[in-house]
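Hi V.,

Quick status before I head out on leave. The structure for the redesign project is tokenized and pasted below; the design run finished overnight.
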């Protein structure tokens, strides 16, 4: 009867232990079961996420040359045991399986073997479940609306096996694809700033923790941030065109919060591009040009306290200093009854008076120049003349602001003696 039991057990053992063996080459000769060899007694085991450690009682039988270790993954389609390790020598009593996955159920069996290629009956099957991967950080949040950056903060992980934090990011354009952004070393680290981001853009972040043996956790909750938008553009600007040698600009204050100042850009021609001109905190600016009839185009931008500058408006405003009045034309002078009579014609409606510039040739080297102002009509009779003395006349138009036109070309005249 005992012989029959041995045959049955031997057959079951062979079918169980060697069917489907994939982690080790098939033995050259069949390993038969020897019920007389001592069965391995397992003292216990310890589990980790990526390792299982066993301890067994020392084998005293000198026939034993070592220990075979078998394993199966209980959730797999094929749950038959396969040999995963061979311990040479009967004095070793510990083994660590480091080829396991976190959170997985395994079955183990141990046999002792002799030098005659026989092995004992298997030990009591050990059912083991590896530890699950660590949870990610328990607290994770961000600071929103930062200028071109995102500040991420979290609570340091309590597990001492944590070595690093993996920061992952994606945008709307990335779809479901998360990209590794950075690896933060040291378990006690608790902050990361993502810089050089787009303005008013949405970003999604999550964190995984990594252990010293490079086991990576599941991701944390996802947080979403939006970077700070640029200040609103300044679209409505008013520029003067009738001031003397200056241009006054004004605009409504930006509705964006925390505006620090405004930048003014200008150009003399739209096709030349705009150059930075000045910055100021007010919403009014006087550009002292100190020239008449100068045209400038302007754009204004708002800049907030973080240095974010709004885009320039689509349209530029044209400003100009008041041009000089146009000079009179058709100036004539002729002699009448001991006087010189001048006549001219106005060309500018702005003109309110005229100034006569009279040059008297007193000698070869000396010329006397005088101005006769506030002439209201388009003619003037010069009674202060001397016969045979050369005179030269120019007419200047003057507007209500006192701006003077360029003088007319000189008209020369000499009154003859009678």
């Amino acid at each position: 009867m005992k012989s029959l039991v041995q045959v049955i057990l031997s057959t079951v053992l062979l079918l169980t232990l060697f069917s489907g063996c994939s982690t080790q080459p098939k033995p050259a000769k069949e390993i038969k079961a020897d019920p007389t060899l001592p069965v391995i007694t397992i003292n216990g085991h310890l589990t980790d996420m990526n390792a299982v450690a066993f301890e067994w009682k020392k084998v005293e039988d000198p026939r034993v040359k070592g220990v075979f270790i078998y394993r199966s993954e209980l959730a797999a389609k094929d749950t038959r045991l396969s040999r995963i390790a061979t311990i040479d020598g009967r004095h070793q009593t510990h083994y660590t399986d480091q080829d396991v996955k976190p959170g997985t159920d395994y079955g183990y069996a141990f046999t002792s073997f002799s030098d005659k290629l026989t092995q004992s009956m298997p030990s009591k099957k050990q059912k083991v479940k590896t530890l699950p991967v660590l949870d990610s950080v328990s607290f994770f949040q961000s600071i929103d609306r930062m200028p071109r950056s995102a500040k991420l903060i979290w609570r340091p992980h309590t597990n001492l096996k944590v070595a690093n934090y993996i920061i992952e990011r994606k945008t709307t354009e990335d779809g479901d694809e998360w990209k590794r952004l950075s690896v933060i070393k040291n378990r006690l680290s608790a902050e990361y700033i993502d810089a050089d981001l787009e303005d008013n853009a949405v970003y999604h972040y999550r964190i995984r923790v990594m252990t010293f043996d490079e086991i990576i956790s599941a991701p944390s909750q996802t947080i979403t941030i939006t970077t700070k938008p640029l200040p609103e553009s300044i679209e409505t600007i008013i520029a003067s065109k009738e001031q003397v040698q200056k241009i006054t600009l004004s605009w409504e204050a930006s509705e964006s919060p925390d505006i620090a100042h405004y930048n003014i850009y200008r150009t003399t021609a739209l096709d030349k591009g705009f150059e930075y001109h000045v910055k100021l905190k007010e919403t009014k600016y006087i550009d002292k040009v100190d020239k008449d009839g100068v045209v400038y185009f302007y754009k204004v931008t708002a800049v907030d306290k973080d240095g974010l500058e709004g885009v320039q408006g689509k349209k530029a405003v044209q400003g100009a200093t008041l041009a000089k009045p146009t000079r009179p034309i058709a100036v004539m002078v002729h002699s009448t009854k001991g006087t010189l009579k001048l006549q001219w014609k106005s060309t500018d409606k702005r003109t309110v008076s005229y100034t006569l510039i009279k040059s008297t040739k007193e000698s070869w080297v000396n010329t006397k120049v005088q101005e006769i102002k506030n002439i209201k009509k388009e003619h003037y009779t010069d009674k202060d003349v001397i016969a045979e003395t050369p005179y030269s006349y120019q007419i200047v138009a003057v507007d209500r602001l006192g701006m003077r036109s360029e003088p007319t070309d000189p008209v020369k005249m000499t009154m003859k003696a009678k």
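Above is the designed sequence. Residues 1-28 have pLDDT under 50 and may be disordered.

G. will cover questions while I'm gone.

Best,
W.
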